[in-house]
Amino acid sequence: MLTVLPKRGITADNRRASLRRLLQRKTCLRIMETHSPISALLAETLALDDGTAAPPVEYDGFWSSSLTDSTERGKPDTEALGIPSRVLNINEIFEVTTKPLIMDGDTGGQPEHFAMNVRTLERTGVSAVIIEDKTGLKKNSLLGNEVAQQQESIPAFRHKIATGKAAQMTDDFMIIARVESLILDAGIEDALARSLAYVDAGADGIMIHSRKKQSDEVFEFAQRFRSHHRDVPLVCVPTSYCQTPFEELERAGFNIVIYANHMLRSSYLAMRDVATEILKNGRSLEAEDKCLSMNDILALIPGTR
Q: Which of 252, 182, 187 is nearest to 212 (CA)?
């Protein structure tokens, strides 16, 4: 018997352009980390309806994190996993979803390599890449100055941005500059100077990163940046200042909020707990209430039953 899958899908061109369209329609977007097709399906379909006339609350797109992509493969978050390897995973995510994806591009590598990767991501249907202004062996930003990390010079990073912009083939694709000044305790003045220089070099947006537990410094940065650029998209990643609600970040002037690693972090805990229960009890009965039922998992993907 012929099985016809539901008509759902999107072309690479339409997906790539969808992030810019969303930024024109909505003040601020919610973006969720997805490291696999199943995590992306969950982020794509999950929506909360409060029963009023207000539209449901949902995630607007996906974040492909170098940290979670590397961790899932048992590799360090040091740019050991190259863009071509990560694009294979993105293609699998794109097979079963329709929402836009923002790529964590780490430092972007050498400008010439970055230009080639921009073309690859653009052809794939990725909407944006975020590159950070650090140089040398990449270390996770939340380590701050606990490990040796060095910012790239402003002229060198401007050159990388300009090289990437010159390489892209459409106006849809976005290159967003991630400023590490607050991470490395260089201060807001340095962060602002770098951000203005990067926008002048062609960056389509700015991501400001902080590892402080409070959101004060990113709010101050947003206020000062907005006095120079009203419409350039501002991005934040509230992993450290996780107590700050989305609505406050939106009011502060941010246009994209990325929840950058939570799908993988939560799935690891769940898998560890279930595996421990089975070892402890010599059977899986005690772990069943922590697992999706077999009927539910068989019904999860169209065409399985």
A: 182
Q: What is the dihedral of CA 35, 19, 98, 300, to 10 degrees?
A: 50
236 alpha-carbon distance from chain centroid: 10
Looking at residue 123, its pLDDT comes to 97
Other beta carbons within 10 angstroms of residue 14's beta carbon come to 14
Q: Give the mean pLDDT per block of 10 residues along the chain (305 residues).
A: 56 98 98 97 91 88 96 91 94 96 97 97 98 86 72 98 98 98 96 98 98 96 98 97 98 98 97 97 96 88 79
**CA 66: distance to chain centroid?**
9
* Pairing outcome for strands 101-104 and 61-64: parallel
Measure Cα distances from 103 to 133, 175, 177, 199 in Å. Answer: 15, 10, 12, 19
The Cβ-side half-sphere exposure at 287, using a 13 Å CA radius, reads 16
Nearest-angstrom CA–CA distance, 253 and 219: 8
Which domains does the chain show, CATH number per domain? Answer: 12-260 (3.20.20.60), 262-305 (no CATH)
What CA–CA distance (Å, rounded) separates 246 from 254?
9
Residues 45, 43: Cα–Cα separation, whole Å: 6
pTM of structure = 0.94
Q: How high is the pLDDT of residue 145?
A: 67
Number of helical H runs and strand E runs in the chain: 11, 12
Residue 44 parent element (H or E): helix 37-45
The CA distance from 146 to 165, in Å, is: 33
Catalytic residue list contains 216: no
Q: Which of 13, 50, 69, 77 is catalytic?
A: 77
Confidence at residue 61, expressed as pLDDT on a 0 to 100 scale? 98
